[in-house]
Amino acid sequence: MPISTSRVRWLMLGHLGLCLGYATTTMLALPHFLALAILVAWLVLAWGFRWGAPMYPRAPLRIWPWSLIPLALWWLSVYITDSYGRVDIGAILFHFQAGIAEHGGTGRILIAILYALAGVMMLVAFTWLVRIDHRWRLLERILMLFLLALNPLLFGFSLQGAAIVAEDGAWLDRRYVPPTIEKAPEELPNLILLYLESIEGTYADTNRFGNAYRDLAALGKRGLVFRGIRQSENTGWTMAGMIASQCGTPLMPAGLIHDNQFEPLEHVLPGVNCLGDLLSAQGYHQLFMGGASLEFAGKGLFYEDHGFDRTLGRHELERRLEDPSYVNSWGLNDDSLLDMAVEEVEALARRPGPFTFVGLTLSGHPPYGYPARACLERQGEFDGVDILYSVECSAWLTRRFIERIENRGLLENTLVVVASDHLSMKNSAWQQLIAGPRENTLIMFGNGLPRQIVYREATTMDILPTLLEAMGFTLPSHRAGLGASLLSPAQTLVERHGLEAIDERMLEERALQVRLWKETQDKPPPTSG
Fold it and tell me: Which molecular function term from Gene Ontology is one that the record holds (predicted)?
């Protein structure tokens, strides 16, 4: 065999081996250096079986392998898993429908291009191998079936479709309690609810993460710290996390039940009452504020649909910046955002009647975070990849924000809630995060709450009734949506059935999905009695 042909052979086989190793370590959450061991094993097998150079060759055929499309779909699954930690079909479906314009993930464009080039080269190498080696022509049809059967992307879509024909597609809906308020306290407290992007409670483990979480731990000493807040299906991205904690439901994409499924959404969860609806009915003036665009993933629509008077996002806030260039790819940095938030909370406090302030930070956004300039001055230089630097930054900015509004006398008769929007997606501390159990951040203080750690097996859907009871409202059976108040003896769904069983039921659920998106149904009033 000529030397040039031999080089081509080993280049093709080597690239296939690298792709196999990278895909294996990504999907199994193994360190990527183990891909080299898989490459070596692949090359040893290739040498031993003379792949690409059979001892008794047959004439090459100019055919197209059956496995090309399944291989491409697998490579897409690898990219999604490498970017986010898992293939979440619910998130994919919802973002396509709600809109992905003005997202801040531009930093991954180069990575996506490199993935695409590597994928094309993989398909070229595989086509060469099948054409040149008749033994692979026999094997690849079996390989095609294997790739189709085990692709997590296709498996997820098949589960979504299975919900339509599930024997019991109403298991969650039967347990859903429409959020209503039976009785309000004599003096309505204000609410400050701050979501920390991806800053999960797992970071409190100092053995794994050092002091990155210490400022949030200090805030926790002022009131209630809830431990054991797990993440269920369809609650694992920002919009889903906020909806789970404010509506007591998972964010099940509209899917085939939406009348105009290929058009942008006009409403988000029009069929249910959420926190904003309940508090609006009680006379609250309500503001949502976040550094990213309100257009992304239907965020502005959700808050406008559910009782909020004002929504402020990137476009509304950028014009207030002293330095217009001081932004990141998602929007405002958190020091700028929280500086403005102090002024907004003060303006809300000057108005007559109670208020709700909901904020959403950006510093902890995977994979590396977006630490603010104020943190650089405090923590020193950022190496560009250490997510724990960004976690520490977010925790400190949160504590500073709360101390500033407290120093202005704005926390009287106020419940403060600090929560992660969801567990972090894949970041630079991924191996440490997945090394043990994970939980969301949930801290509440003020409004007469005791100082205590509450250990409960729960999900973010339990936050809504817990928050309302912490404010002094009375709920039917201590429940709202699919959640149970963690301040009451009522059992959570996780305590009663286990997280795995809930996730399995969620993949089969149809009735609750219809309830969430049914625009024509009559919603129950947000108050009762």
Answer: transferase activity
SS3 of the chain: helix, strand, coil, percent, to 5: 50, 10, 40
Angle at 100 between CA 368 and CA 256, to 5 degrees: 125
pLDDT exceeds 60 at position 260: no
CA distance 462 to 481: 8
Query: Do 115 and 40 form a contact (C-beta atoms < 8 A)?
Result: no
Q: Are 306 and 358 in contact (CB under 8 A)?
A: no
Angle between helices 109-132 and 68-84 (to 10 degrees): 150
In this prediction, residue 1 has a pLDDT band, given cuts at 50, 70 and 90, of very low
Q: What is the DSSP string of 30-65?
A: --TTHHHHHHHHHHHHHHHHTTTS-SS---------
Angle between helices 68-84 and 134-150 (to 10 degrees): 50
Which domains are seen in the chain, by residue range? 3-164 (no CATH), 171-251+267-436+445-450+470-517 (3.40.720.10)
* Residue-averaged pLDDT of the chain: 89
Contact 62, 137 (CB under 8 A): no
Look at residues 415, 22, 21 and name the one whose alpha carbon lies nearest to residue 193: 415
**Element containing residue 267 per DSSP (H, E):** none
Residue type, 313: G
CB 153 within 8 A of CB 73: yes
All residues at 6 or more sequence positions from 87 whose CB lies less than 8 Å from its CB, including other chains: 77, 80, 81, 152, 153, 156
**Residue 91: per-residue pLDDT:** 65
Alpha carbon separation from 277 to 179, 309, 457 (Å, rounded): 9, 11, 27
Instruction: Read off the pLDDT of each residue in 106-114 and give the average, rounded to a whole number.
Output: 76
- Work out the percent of the chain whose per-residue pLDDT is above 70: 89
Q: Which of 282-286, 364-368, 456-460 has the weakest average pLDDT? A: 364-368
SS3 224: strand
Give Cβ neighbours of residue 415 (< 8 Å, ≥ 6 apart): 189, 190, 191, 192, 444, 445, 446, 447, 449, 467, 470, 471
Please count the residues of the chain.
Answer: 529
CA distance 86 to 423: 12
Residues 272, 522: contact at Cβ < 8 Å?
no
pTM above 0.85, yes or no: yes
As given in the structure block, the two tokens for residue 61 are 């055929």
> Which residues have a Cβ under 8 Å from the Cβ of 220 and sit 6 or more positions away?
443, 453
Are the C-beta atoms of 256 and 160 separated by less than 8 Å? Answer: no
Longest dimension (CA), the chain: 90
Q: Which of 365, 235, 249, 237 is nearest to 306 (CA)?
A: 249
- Record the tokens describing residue 473, joined without a space: 């409202």
Whole-angstrom Cα distance, residue 52 to residue 46?
Answer: 8
Gyration radius of the chain's alpha carbons = 26
